[in-house]
Design goal:
Elements lengths: L1 H26 L13 H24 L21 E4 L2 E4 L2 E3 L5 E3 L4 H18 L10 E4 L3 E6 L3 E13 L4 E12 L2 H18 L1 H13 L3 E4 L5 E4 H18 L18 E5 L7 E4 L5 E4 L2 E2 L10 E6 L2 E12 L4 E11 L2 E2 L19 E11 L8 E6 L2 E7 L1 E3 L2 E9 L4 E6 L6 E5 L5 E7 L3 E9 L2 E2 L3 E7 L5 E5 L4 E4 L2 E17 L2 E10 L3 H4 L3 E10 L2 E17 L1 H5 L2 E6 L8 H13 L3 E4 L1
Parallel strand pairs: 19-26, 27-36
Antiparallel strand pairs: 1-2, 3-4, 5-7, 6-7, 7-8, 9-15, 10-13, 11-16, 12-16, 14-15, 16-17, 17-18, 19-23, 20-21, 20-24, 22-23, 24-25, 27-28, 27-31, 29-30, 29-32, 32-35, 33-34, 36-37
Helix pairs in contact: 2-3, 5-6
């Protein structure tokens, strides 16, 4: 019996020891700051404060970029639609949430809350690994491992849980911490919700377009009748400037709370909100079937009244207008901003769009993933490349996962939504996005090759001479497009492929277009008996077009199509040479200059 009692005691002791050991290893990763020996707390606090600063910096950057920490792929504009997929706001690109692309397609780039949190995770992994311990490392040994991050954005704070093993050691003691928590006060979540509400209201009601329609009819000739026998004359340039100034003033006057009034859209938003438009932002104002001068011809009101000299001038002009508006939600410390395009189509506001954007809207397609597909990703040398995999079908995109390297392959086995001729999209840092058409009705395997991106320096010349003239250089292909603003940007990331390369260079000087006098003749009713019988006579009027000074006049450019190989891109420098064109001295010559640019050759070389 004594022996049995002794055995029982030893068993109990062994169980207690095992439980203690397991408990130690379970809890060791959850040591709080207060559990860190006092000797190491200053070093640990120094590190945590660095992480907090990085979270605050990420919050500020996301607010400035419409929720994005990593900008979506840039899409250049066109001569028809002058703005790109991003608004240049003091040198920083802010992605449009709604805009019309260069080929006049409606595009939306509203980030979901889950995407913002994912980008926070990716952004903070790199930043957290850069955080150190300052001078504290001189007096102790500190080692840390790789980090993983989980971010939760709430209305008034951002919570970050991150795992990174940190070991402290000195002559007296040691400690190890792996699980960490950081909480930062931030209105990013609240401002994002308000931005979604404002965006949905504008999307469904087009209230900015309705203000713009009123501005158009108040400040520009649209429809009307003037009781005069002389033609009415307006200058296109003056109309453009007047409308831009009016849009600028009217957008700035809009409010989302307050007493009822013309400029109040009562949404009961208890935060400061402003709507911004700058007349220097890319703006398109087109007037159908007119030139640089709008002339409305006089006609007689009816036969028999010519004896009174009774004439009238009717006019009707049709406008297409596109311009960007930037919405800013802000307080004394934080800002969230996003732009979208305001569209007037043939004098009318664009049609309201019924779809509503939600914070975490999951496309309906993505809810039904039931076909297993094996995806393998490689570079052009058939070496494995880890990549993020998305799937797009019928304008809906689903996040699938990431390929991981195992046994010499970068592979992902995951279930996809069923779709005929869908697109599997692979993205990896340092590579151009790769897309492959696939039907996911049945299980199968998909191999995707990603072309590496090469950072290529640009040498831009006009007439074989280096120049610092401002120029827009575009590289456009089916899979990868980039635009460079020379000379501020002197390099570009390109992948192998067929590109349309175009250049528009502008002279820094100014060109004066002298005042012009133009005679305009029209038939008016004759005085006396002849006018009563409907007879007319020709009367001529002098139209004076004032002198104008144009800046940033186009001076050179051209267009070409080139297939750029990896061997060429590896050389590291692309030389672009374009011939100049005569400086235009009139509006007609200016129009001819743009036609000449389209036919001008570009000369491309690598070195």
């Amino acid at each position: 019996m004594n022996k049995r009692g002794q055995v029982t005691i030893f068993v109990i002791i062994a169980v207690v020891i095992v439980v203690a050991i397991i408990g130690y290893f379970v809890l060791i990763d959850r040591i709080s700051v207060s559990s860190v020996p006092e000797e190491f707390q200053p070093a640990y606090n120094y590190y945590i404060s660095c992480v907090e600063e990085e979270v605050e910096a990420a919050s500020m950057l996301a607010g400035e970029r419409g929720g994005y920490l990593f900008l979506p792929e840039f899409e250049p504009g066109s001569a028809y639609k002058p703005y790109s997929s991003q608004l240049d706001f003091f040198g920083q690109g802010v992605p449009y949430w709604y805009y019309l692309s260069g080929n006049n397609l409606i595009k939306e780039q509203v980030p979901s809350k889950s995407l913002i949190q994912e980008q926070f995770n990716e952004y903070l992994v790199d930043k957290i690994e850069d955080c150190g311990f300052g001078d504290y490392e001189k007096n102790m040994i500190i080692e840390k491992g790789e980090a993983s991050v989980s971010t939760k954005i709430q209305d008034s704070k951002i919570s970050v849980d991150f795992s990174i093993p940190i070991s402290f050691a000195s002559l007296e003691s040691s400690a190890r911490v792996s699980k960490h928590e950081v909480e930062v006060d931030s209105k990013l979540g609240r401002f994002y919700k308000l931005a979604i509400d404002i965006y949905n209201k504008e999307k469904q009601e087009a209230f900015l377009e309705r203000y713009s329609e009123d501005v158009l009819r108040l400040y520009a000739p649209v429809d009307g009748v003037e009781m005069t026998c002389a033609p009415k004359v307006w200058y296109k340039q003056e109309i453009d400037e007047t409308l831009k100034k009016a849009f600028e003033a009217n957008m700035g006057a809009i409010r989302l709370e307050g007493n009822k009034g013309y400029f109040v859209q009562d949404m009961n938003i208890q935060e400061d909100v402003r709507f911004l438009y700058d007349r220097n932002w890319p703006t398109r104002i087109e007037i159908y079937d007119t030139g640089d001068v709008l002339i409305a011809e006089p006609v007689g009101l009816q036969q028999g009244l010519g004896v009174l000299g009774f004439c009238y001038v009717p006019y009707h002009y049709v406008y297409d207008i596109d311009y960007p508006v930037l919405v800013q939600i802000y307080d004394e410390a934080e800002l969230f901003q996003f732009p979208f395009s305001v569209v007037i189509d043939k004098n009318l506001p664009r049609e309201s769009l019924d779809a509503t954007v939600y914070e975490d809207a999951e496309p309906e397609l993505c809810k039904y993933q039931n076909t297993e597909i094996d995806v393998y990703t490689y570079n052009s040398e058939l070496e494995p490349v880890e990549a993020r995999i998305d799937f797009r079908c019928l304008q809906q995109t689903c996040k699938i996962g990431e390929t991981e390297i195992h046994g010499g392959d970068a592979a992902l086995t995951e279930k996809f939504p069923q779709c005929v001729n869908g697109f599997i999209i692979a993205r990896a840092e340092g590579y151009a996005d790769a897309t492959k058409i696939v039907s996911t009705i049945d299980s199968g395997q998909v191999d995707i090759i990603l072309d590496p991106l090469y950072n290529v320096s640009i040498d831009f010349m006009i007439n074989t001479q280096p120049t610092s003239d401002y120029a827009i250089i575009s590289f456009v292909s089916d899979r990868h497009s980039r635009t460079v603003a020379w000379p501020e940007q002197r390099s570009v990331e390109l992948a192998e492929g067929l590109y349309n390369i175009s250049v528009f260079a502008y002279n820094d000087g100014s060109v004066s277009i002298p005042a012009m006098k133009k005679e305009q003749c029209s038939d008016v009713p004759k005085s006396g008996i002849g006018g009563i019988l409907g007879a007319t006579e020709e009367k001529c009027f002098d139209i004076n077009i004032p002198a104008q000074t144009l800046q940033n006049i186009i001076s050179a450019g051209g267009d070409t199509q080139e297939y750029l190989t990896e061997m060429q891109l590896e050389q590291g420098t692309i030389e672009i040479n374009t011939p100049s064109i005569p400086i235009p001295k009139s509006l007609e010559e200016l129009q001819d200059s743009y036609i000449a640019i389209e036919n001008n050759p570009l000369y491309i070389d690598f070195k």
